[in-house]
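Why does residue order matter? Because the sequence determines the fold. Keep that principle in mind as you read this record.
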Amino acid sequence: MKRLFLTASIASALLLTTGCNEKATEQQSTPQVQAEVAQDSAIAMGALETQARQKLATLEGMMDEARTKEIDVAREETIVWFSEQFLKFANWDEANPETIAKAFSYERYYANDKDKLAAELPDFERRKVIEILDKGIDVLGQELRGEIKRRPVNKVDWQGTKAGDNMFISNGKPIFPYDYFSKTVGQPLTNTDIYNDHLGALYHGGENLYPVDHDRAINSFLLKEDGTFDEELMKELTSIPDTNIGFLVYWIMGIPEWVEQQEPEVRKGRSLFTGFDVDNPLARDLWAKIIRRTGELTKGKKVTELGFVLANEPHWFSEKDHWTYRFEEMNSISSYTLNKFRNWLNAKYSGDIAVLNANWNTEYTEFAQVEIEIPLDTAYKGQPIWYDWMRYNMDRGTDWFKFMQDNLHAVNPEAATHIKVMPRMFMDDSRSGGIDTEALAELTTMVGHDAKSFGSKNIRPGKSSEWIEKYAYHWGIVAMFHDFMESVAPDKINVNSESHFLSSGQWRDLDTRTSYVRSVYWLATLLGMDANMGWFWARDPDGSPEDRLEGELDFFDPGLGGAYAGSNNMQPHVTNEVTQVMYDLNSFSEEIVELREQRRPIRLFYSETTAINIDDYMTQGYKLYETLFFEGTPLGFVTKNIIEKQNNDLWDTVVVYRNAYVTDEEFATLQGYLNNGGTVILDSEKSLSLNEYGQKRADKLTAAKGKLIVLETDDIEKIKQAAVAEVKSTSLSGVTLKEDNGQPHKTTTWRAVKQADGRYLVNILNFGHNTAKLELALNTGQAFSMIDLMTRNPVESSFELESEGVLLIELTPR
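Structure:
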């Protein structure tokens, strides 16, 4: 993959017009030569903009013709808007090379080439504008000639969209709102250059990007020491127009000095984005008052239709040598936290200090004597003290968010809530971060997160990009996380309040593929994402970076300063494609919902108990998930809570893989599932053999009224075959797909659902590097015809799907 965006093809695209290239590479030793080069560059710039504007005129003329034929041109209106914007941006970037070079310098991946990149960026943007115009002209031309027929865009009603039971509804249909998180600051919420159908038009109290900034975020500084509220700061909240739907953020990063003076311990146990001890009584009193007041003031307002974000990326990593330690996260704990931990232990051990002493190898006479050094040495992993603290740390985090939600609902019972949970809290092997993803998804009224993907290799030295050997992008971190969250809370709206699909601190690519953009947004929406706010939009309408990204940047967040470089703010093709794919998803929203709401017949058993105790639970568990994902059957998870709280008829079999450590309650739940006729597949008798403290369990599962299969294998393929064999015929769609991608592994995932009229809806995604040769069939052998729903064109039963291709098919049996 690319070290920079200047691949051979792009480098050639960035070269200036004939006569300028050679001169630009000569030694610029005299003012005359430099002036000539500058003049030639200006000519080249003018030629590109002239070309783009000619194409704009062509497209707009075609749009006029299309309107006379009553052809929807919403997609082309967006192309025109982004083209105009990025031509303006390119001119600003060209006139301000030092500012752009500085932006590149803040991202270490680009820093060494900052001047070169800044010089090349304007023409890159212009050429990408030409590309999206060429594509727009081509596609609209096909529709004008009758070669394709697109479904009109179903736009988001930014004023009237409502939150339903498990989806947003606009004009009587499911809708997937989209926008950019942390939009440019200082611009009024009524500015249509920022809030529109193209960039999205959600009003919000955006992220506070300074340690002590008050930009519409609800934060600790709203309450003064005398118990009154800072009404000037409160206006940032109350002055939001009650026109567009939106969301609000409780920004819990800072703490006022007056609190610190009264409570010297208030910053003990703080974390990167939670600037105080959540166990501190004064901090809790402060936040209870703020939450209740802001909840009252915003009750019934449209700006809360997408809910209150209770926290930005919360975590409390408490293991030694974790990267968060240098940001003063959990460097110690307060007396309040320690005492709460002692009380938790007292309850956990039923007041028997002797049992704790036996587990911890200590000699305490009472729980009030218990001590623990935080951060905890990783040498303790797998030992009872490690389990007890890590489990408590999760319960502590959940308790804090319950406290926040309880206070909000005390004054505003209908308020929707979610938390921007980082997927790494589930996907990574570490469980020292104090976040129980299942518990938080159960707690809040909506499911919240900031799911990401990697469109190209990880740009950080030493970080793995192993997935790229098999796939075009890292689809798995999107899919597995969504499948888990949807399994836990299938009837809740799913909000990604900071989607890092386009860039993040770990990856970016200045020439991101539009095919990747389309595929990843389609995948996430298909698997449950109901709304997303992308990271991030940071252009003022004149093209300059917004105020917070100008001047000398000194952010506490280490990733923010370099976020602008290589982002979608420099990529017209990417930003346009986000809106285009959201238009298509919203035009087919009913079909997407029908596909996503299928049963998940295969369920993987998930145990936080094992995850806490071993080093590679998620890494190895992902491998089984990955191989099952390409079998055409929706996947899901079960936990103790899911089995107990949900209808067990929603699945056919439970696969228990590498789950040696489970609590007695988890074990009893699985046995109860078998007693009621369920099917359980164990990879080995070692599974479920230990309790949370590593002590041998005497009991073993028995089949009872159900079916118990013990494989005694760690062969992923054998486990997959056993799981697929237990899927009931009634759970199968009736559609089969054969794949030939030239590789020994599958890369094409597909889902099919039979509709009420007998036709089938089929969705296919190719994550591979190669074009896949595919063949669809009905397992009855019945003949059929197919059409591509995006174009209304026929599709043969044998066809090809390019890398990162997305296909939505209607299959009609004959």
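Residues 31-68 form the longest helix (38 residues).
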